[in-house]
Automatic annotation (TrEMBL):
Residues 154-322 form the GGDEF domain. This is diguanylate cyclase. Its EC number is 2.7.7.65. It catalyses: 2 GTP = 3',3'-c-di-GMP + 2 diphosphate. CDD domains: GGDEF. InterPro entries: Diguanylate_Cyclase (IPR050469), GGDEF_dom (IPR000160), Nucleotide_cyclase (IPR029787), Rev_trsase/Diguanyl_cyclase (IPR043128). It comes from Duganella sacchari. The lineage of its organism: Bacteria, Pseudomonadati, Pseudomonadota, Betaproteobacteria, Burkholderiales. One of its GO terms (molecular function) is diguanylate cyclase activity. It is an enzyme of class 2 (transferase).
């Protein structure tokens, strides 16, 4: 069933009948049931009966008293229903002829836009389909119901497929048989697409193209995850490889459509066909119109991934995004020049300073260990995964790069790297290979030294939080990590991180726990009686002297800080959150002045929000406000700053709620009240605002006029609204002098609030 052809028929139907108040639906038969085109709902028994009966009518089916007619179109294997607003026509032949013409026009358009052998989208049609999809996703509404419901962004991917060893099939069995393989391959792709669409309901759209030869393209888009996309790619692959192609049943079906008697069908075991799949995701880089360069780019990336899938053994799916991380190979090792050439370059993201682990083809963990008992051979396991060495890139070109051996434990002259050896990218933040005590034969021994594993740290805090031994958490962070990475590459950054890790281990006792938080940070948890602030300060000073470009800073939170905050007016902070607090104290938005070691507290949290507000980083500011609130930070000024951030995002109602909490915590703060007044003004909560602001004295209002004129203006505008709406909360005496003062605020003389105040003054 060619759904693309039916969609063209639908377009022609709309053009044919749009002026006559006639609507239509198209139904097709698949998997032993009738389905409405691009719909997933189950058809009613009445509709099902009409569809079956329409096949028996030479012209059309019209049921007594019905407003609909049903036209069976056997040439395109579907049924078309026409819905009339008043009553169905008595003369059906006219509409039958019109539908025949519609089908003819759609079929002609289909022939132009589709490959004549496989009936899949031709090259230009596929590019046009891709262009429309890219335009749609680049202009997608980020607040769509689908995204909100499934918490997924719309994703788009292109698969490039190639029939493995197709030239050999043509050379061995002839081009006529090869054409039947192409047809069957296309049929299976469509079948897989239909099954995937049914499985994922309305969340996905799949289009299949056949540009030429044995190359095929698939476009997948929908509200699904990247993991689901990769699973879909493997479903297409398995649809081809899991059974002989063509099967006996498929050959029988092909024979019904054309005379295949001149072709000798190969034996069943000779019809095994596999496919390699290259996958590329579309990354939205900028707003604006989609260019042909972007279309070519995603197609080229899918084709590059396909090449890797074929050169890496065929019958597999390779994502372009994975080529850099684990699909590179060694082309040459010049022992005399001490240079290694590798087959990946700038085109797949290689950059100067990147590190790779090198594995031989035998000891990559992928090669099976086979035994032969004299009768049969069988695989009983895999050769182990053993790293040969590590290399660092120093020269990058589009399709090739050059590197040197950087493993400090290996003498360059003792290492020989075979052609075809496999590469695995060492990501930023990975330092296990740089630490002493590591063995290539026992890599799991350093499993704990990986990025982002906080479990051991938090378990320590949880275990000793209520014990007599006071605990602490400290985070060391390279604040200029990104600049350093861009200048020197991941190898240099990993080396610096490994040095910091070793130095930190040296100044803390063995019962302390050290872990890598992210690519720029290391965290230590331990007992406060083992914490020596002078040693930490000396470490920061030493590394900052030797690695000044990384700008090392640190944040700390311990039981000492809990007691300090408890004695203050701000409130208690929980030691259970000490790791998070230490991370915030080491952030970029803390006022450091002369110290590079900051202890977390309510004032630090306030400084962070104030910095983000001043930088207009409201999205991050709100995220940090909500996170810190959940951790127990609750000072009045902190909550007031949260209100400012929400106001900056035009959420005045929630901002008002926060300002009101801040006022309750500190009733003497005039600015919290005027901020509340502004939020209630902009969220049309006049009476709510006036009720609270009535507590302000005239003296406090004078202070507001001088120090917080915008808030003063907001209160005056609330009073103006109250007068206009004849609210019982209107204070005529207060409004009379405040309105005069507000109008004199030259900075706001064009503000909309001034106009409301003037309108209220003009009232009798």
């Amino acid at each position: 069933m060619k759904l693309e052809k039916l969609r063209l028929v639908r377009e022609e139907l709309q053009d044919e009948f749009y002026q006559e108040d006639i609507t239509s639906s198209i139904f097709y038969y698949f998997n032993k049931r009738w389905i409405e085109l691009d719909k997933t709902s189950t058809l009613s028994k009445t509709v099902h009966n009409n569809l079956e009966l329409s096949k028996l009518e030479p012209v059309a089916l019209r049921r007594k008293g019905s407003k609909n007619i049903w036209v069976s179109c056997s040439e395109i294997e579907c049924c078309i229903a026409l819905y009339f607003s008043n009553s169905a026509p008595k003369v059906l032949e006219v509409y039958r002829r019109r539908i025949n013409n519609v089908v003819k026009r759609a079929s002609n358009a289909y022939k132009v836009s589709h490959n004549q052998l496989t009936q899949l989208l031709a090259r230009d049609s596929f590019r046009e389909k891709l262009h429309k999809a890219l335009t749609s996703i680049s202009h997608a509404d980020l607040t769509s119901e689908e995204e909100q419901e499934g918490n997924l962004n719309k994703i788009l991917a292109v698969f490039a497929l190639d029939i493995d060893h197709f030239k050999q099939i043509n050379d061995t069995y002839g081009h006529l048989y090869g054409d039947q393989v192409l047809k069957t391959f296309a049929i299976r792709l469509e079948r897989a697409a239909d099954n995937i669409a049914l499985e994922l309901s309305d969340n996905i759209e799949i289009s299949i193209g056949h540009p030429s030869g044995e190359e095929f393209l698939i476009l997948v888009q929908g509200y699904i995850s990247k993991d689901t996309i990769i699973k879909i790619a493997n479903q297409f692959r398995l649809e081809i490889s899991d059974s002989p192609l063509p099967s006996d049943k498929e050959w029988e079906d092909l024979s019904k459509r054309e005379n295949l008697s001149p072709i000798i069908l190969p034996q069943l075991h000779e019809r095994n066909v596999t496919t390699s799949v290259g996958l590329a995701f579309y990354a939205l880089s900028q707003e604006g119109e989609i260019t042909q360069d972007e279309i070519t780019s995603i197609l080229d990336r899918a084709d590059t991934a396909l090449y890797r899938a074929k050169s890496g053994g065929r019958n597999q799916v390779i994502s372009f995004d994975d080529i850099l991380s684990n699909c590179g190979r060694v082309l040459e090792h010049d022992i005399a020049a001490r240079v290694i050439a590798i087959d990946i370059g700038k085109n797949v993201g290689v950059s100067i300073g990147q590190e790779f682990k090198v594995f031989s083809t035998s000891y990559s963990g992928k090669k099976g260990f086979m035994i032969n008992d004299g009768r049969t051979s069988r695989t009983i396991g895999n050769y182990p995964r053993i790293e040969i060495t590590t290399i660092t890139v120093f020269n990058v070109q589009p399709e090739v790069s050059f590197a040197y051996i950087s493993d400090i434990k290996e003498k360059e002259s003792s290492v020989t790297i075979e052609k075809g050896a496999l590469l695995e990218l060492i990501p930023t933040g990975s330092i296990a290979h740089l630490l002493t005590g590591r063995s290539k034969y026992f890599p799991d021994a350093m499993e704990h030294i990986k990025v982002g594993d906080l479990s051991a740290l938090q378990n320590f805090i949880d275990k000793y939080a209520t014990s007599k031994n006071s605990t602490f958490s400290i985070v060391f962070r390279f604040s200029a990590e990104q600049e350093y990475f861009k200048r020197y590459g991941s190898a240099a950054l990993n080396s610096a991180l490994a040095r910091l890790y070793r130095e930190v281990q040296a100044i803390f006792p063995v019962e302390s726990i050290v872990r890598i938080l992210d690519t720029s940070s290391i965290c230590v948890v331990g007992f406060e009686n083992n914490y020596k602030e002078n040693s930490v300060a000396d470490l920061i000073k030493e590394l900052d002297t030797q690695l000044p470009e990384l700008r090392l800073v640190a944040g700390i939170f311990g039981q000492t800080d809990v007691k300090r905050e408890e004695k203050s007016n701000y409130g208690k902070l929980d030691i259970m959150h000490s790791i998070d607090f230490a991370r915030y104290a080491a952030s970029d938005y803390v006022k450091r002045e002369n110290s590079k070691l900051i202890r977390f507290g309510h004032i630090v949290a306030q400084n962070i929000l104030r910095a983000l507000f001043d930088l207009k980083s409201t999205t991050q500011g709100i995220a940090d406000f909500e996170k810190l609130s959940s951790l127990g930070v609750s000072s009045a000024e902190f909550i007031n700053l949260g209100g400012l951030l929400y106001r900056a995002k035009n959420n005045s109602k929630h901002a008002a709620d926060l300002y009101e909490i801040a006022v309750k915590k500190n009733p003497a703060a005039i600015t919290y009240k005027t901020n509340f007044g502004l939020a209630t003004y902009f969220s049309s909560q006049t009476d709510r605002g006036l009720t609270l602001l009535a507590s302000l004295t005239n003296e406090e209002l004078q202070v507001a006029l001088e120090k917080y004129p915008y808030g003063f203006l907001g209160y005056t505008a609330l009073l103006a609204k109250a007068k206009i709406s004849e609210s019982t909360l209107f204070d005529a005496e207060r409004f009379s002098w405040m309105a005069v003062a507000a109008i004199k605020l030259e900075k706001y003389n064009r503000h909309g609030m001034i106009q409301i105040i003037q309108s209220a003054l003009a009232m009798q």
